[in-house]
Amino acid sequence: MIRSATLDDISEIRTMIRELAAYERAEEQARATGEQLREALFGEHPAAVALIAEDDGTGEVVGYALWFPRFSTWTGTRGMHLEDLYVRPHARGAGHGKALLAALAATCRRNGYDRFEWWVLAWNTPTIDFYKSLGVELLEEWKVCRLSGDPLRELAAQAPPVRTRAADPRERHARDPR
Fold this sequence. Notes:
Blueprint lengths: L1 E3 L5 H14 L10 H9 L6 E6 L6 E12 L4 E11 L8 H16 L3 E4 L6 H9 L15 H9 L14 H4 L3
Parallel strand pairs: 4-5
Antiparallel strand pairs: 1-2, 2-3, 3-4
């Protein structure tokens, strides 16, 4: 069964995030706290949405998907960015990953999203093969760019002042997307 995450799922989601990070050989980078996840998923201005996969027989939480909206300047439409898709190893092959992706695809269709995008590690051949079996297009010509830590701080220190115009309620979202 696929269902929307609730506040009661925060601890389980945090645990699965760490499991995913361990699988991706980056466990030390999974630093999100329960409070950060609570705010991101259920706060006044949620940053993301999560779905939970449960085993139909036992009700055990076996996976999750976490996504957020994005916007394409090329199409002029919103889309979906899948941040995490994870199914616990003992539950893989039972259709939970496909069910999560199908639920997300249905959300895209319902919301009029033109694109549903995510990243996959180049060495994760089983997952890549699974995605290909669903008809996923791998965009080999694109590279992911990331600026964090000291380089982010150093570049931010070079930022010129950003002038804001007089407050016009019609322009609020251009300055503050909340």
